[in-house]
């Protein structure tokens, strides 16, 4: 089993920045990729979380079109931690952000963190 713990959410004004962290523990050897998803307020129950960004252990990165150029995903191999630097935040970025992990991008949603709230005020 893999445990994921997020931190770094909060309230920020539009145009501001936040950095999210996700620390992995447990069966680290199972992980080959980590990423971030988000679920906006008011989204219907059962609706899928939206992909935001991902990184694999070859340091290939992928981003949703909506965050390209504003968000940057990175990782610290020694700390088993992935970061999401979010700049130029918009009110539309308001959501609960979830860390995810898996053996590859194809199985990125095998493990989930508990989520951290990001609120962007206009």
Question: In words, what does this structure look like?
Answer:
With 122 residues, the protein is mostly beta strands. It has no helices and 11 strands. The chain has strands at 2-7, 10-13, 18-26, 33-39, 50-56, 61-63, 71-76, 81-86, 95-102, 111-112, 116-121. Strands 2, 4, 5, 6, 9, 10 and 11 form a 7-stranded mixed β-sheet that branches. Strands 1-3-8-7 form a 4-stranded antiparallel β-sheet, with no helix packed on it. β5 (50-56) and β6 form a beta hairpin. The radius of gyration is 14 Å and the shape is globular. The termini are far apart.
- Count of extended strands: 11
Q: Give the overall form.
A: globular
Number of helices: 0
Low-confidence stretches: none
Most strands sheet: 7 strands, mixed
> What is the first-to-last residue Cα distance?
40 Å
Summed over residues and divided by their number, the pLDDT gives a mean of 94
Structural class: mainly beta
The SSE string, one letter per element, is: EEEEEEEEEEE
The proportion of residues forming helix, as a percent range, comes to: under 10%
Radius of gyration: 14 Å
Key features?
single chain; 122 residues; mainly beta; 4-stranded antiparallel sheet; globular
Topology of helices and strands:
Blueprint lengths: L1 E6 L2 E4 L4 E9 L6 E7 L10 E7 L4 E3 L7 E6 L4 E6 L8 E8 L8 E2 L3 E6 L1
Parallel strand pairs: 2-11
Antiparallel strand pairs: 1-3, 3-8, 4-5, 4-9, 5-6, 7-8, 9-10, 9-11
């Amino acid at each position: 089993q893999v445990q994921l713990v997020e931190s770094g959410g909060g309230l920020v004004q539009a145009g501001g920045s936040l950095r999210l962290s996700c620390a992995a523990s447990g069966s680290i050897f199972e992980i080959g990729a980590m990423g971030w998803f988000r679920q906006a307020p008011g989204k219907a129950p059962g609706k899928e979380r939206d992909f935001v960004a991902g990184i694999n252990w070859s340091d290939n990165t992928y981003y949703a079109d909506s965050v390209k150029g504003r968000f940057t995903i990175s990782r610290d191999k020694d700390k088993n931690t992935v970061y999401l630097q979010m700049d130029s935040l918009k009110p539309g970025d308001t959501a609960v952000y979830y860390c995810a992990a898996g053996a590859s991008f194809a199985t990125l949603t095998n493990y989930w963190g508990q989520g951290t709230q990001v609120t962007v005020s206009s």
